Amino acid sequence: MLVLFTAGCATQVQQSRPVAVEKPAEDTPVTSSASATVPPAQLGISVTSIVDGRAVMLSDGSKAEVSGLAQPGPCWAEAAGKFAAAMLLNQQVRYDRTTGALSLADGTDYALLALGNGAGRTAGTPTPAQKEAEGAAQRVPMGLWGAPCGGKETLETSAPPPPPPVTTTTKPKPATTTPKPKTVFYASCNDVVRAGKAPLYWGQPGYRVELDENRNGIACESRYGYR
């Protein structure tokens, strides 16, 4: 059965507002031989749990997978599941096992409802009504067509920058310096003699011109009586 948007919903789809559809006519009796194994769409069943944005578990223990909806992508799967829970959980529904169409008790087609709110995207060959509902969500954009998914199945993550190159720094070796000789000071040649350093030659520790009376480069010479 073809379900169509009302004129108002064709131009604008609200996130929390069901997409209005024409209420289906009375069920047409199934006359094909398949009627013995495939029951017609019927009310009296409700949604007991949500599998994902396009599949639910029914109160009769069966799983209902909504036709016309693609498998939710990783980026928007959680949002699609939450939308399905808000619209379908513990609600009476009509599920046509022949076509896979799932409708709310008031006749609203769930596939159109999800498409129009950006909680699903079309799969296979969509009907004109499904194209229109999906296009309305794209134009807003809303749901999976808005941020952060932007209509993509997965978020694009930029590759992390490569780690900086490892730089090894070698500590400079400490400069080796020849230790300076210890400063020696003798107040007089008597001190030099007592230290056992007499005579003192120029350049030796403790030599100074004041101790070298004749300025010949030899201080505290023995001939001057310094013993």
UniProtKB/TrEMBL annotation:
It comes from the Bacteria. Residues 185-221 form the Excalibur calcium-binding domain. Pfam families: Excalibur. InterPro entries: Excalibur_Ca-bd_domain. Residues 167-180 have a biased composition (Low complexity). This is Excalibur calcium-binding domain-containing protein. Residues 152-180 are annotated as: Disordered.
